[in-house]
C-alpha cells in the first residue's frame, strides 16, 4: 500500500507540473496548423510570435531577433490568441485521481 501511495504522489506531481503549449504556425489567409504539445521537462514558458500577419507557437522563452514580436506566458495552453485562466484544467484534472484514491483509502 505504501508503494501505491508513493506512485500516486509521484504521478500527481509529474502531471501537475507538466506544461502544455500550442505548437505550430499559420496565418489568417492560409489557416493554421497548430496542435497541443507537452513541453520538455523543466520548460516553464509558452510563446507566440506574431509578425507580418503570421503566428508561430511553441514552448520556451522569447529570444532572438524576433523577440520584439513575441509574447510569453507560464500556464498551460496560454499561447493561444484567446488565452484564459481556464487553461489550467489539465492541472486540476491531474489532482482528481490522487484525491479520489486517498478518500477511498479513508473510507
Biggest sheet descriptor: 5 strands, antiparallel
Average pLDDT, all residues = 78
Binned, the helix content reads: 25-40%
Secondary structure: number of strands: 5
General shape: elongated
Lateral arrangement of strands in the main beta sheet? 2-1-4-3-5
Please state the CA-atom Rg, rounded to the nearest Å.
18 Å
Q: DSSP strand (E) fraction? A: 25-35%
N to C succession of SSEs:
HEEEEEH
Low-confidence spans: pLDDT under 50, at least 5 residues? 83-87
Secondary-structure class:
alpha+beta
Helical element count? 2
Describe this entry's structure for a reader:
With 107 residues, the protein is α+β, with helices and mostly antiparallel strands. Helix content is 32%, strand content 30%. It has two helices and five strands; from the N terminus they run αβββββα. Helix 1 (2-17) packs antiparallel against helix 2 (89-106). It is elongated and about 60 Å long. Residues 83-87 have low confidence and may be disordered.
Amino acid at each position: 500500500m505504501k508503494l501505491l501511495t508513493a506512485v500516486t504522489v509521484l504521478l500527481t506531481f509529474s502531471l501537475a507540473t507538466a506544461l502544455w503549449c500550442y505548437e505550430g504556425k499559420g496565418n489568417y489567409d492560409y489557416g493554421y496548423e497548430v496542435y497541443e504539445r507537452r513541453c520538455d521537462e523543466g520548460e516553464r514558458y509558452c510563446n507566440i510570435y506574431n509578425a507580418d500577419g503570421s503566428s508561430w507557437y511553441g514552448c520556451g522563452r522569447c529570444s532572438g531577433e524576433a523577440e520584439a514580436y513575441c509574447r510569453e506566458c507560464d500556464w498551460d495552453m496560454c499561447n493561444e490568441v484567446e488565452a484564459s485562466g481556464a487553461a489550467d484544467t489539465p492541472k486540476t484534472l491531474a489532482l482528481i485521481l490522487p484525491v479520489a484514491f486517498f478518500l477511498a483509502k479513508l473510507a
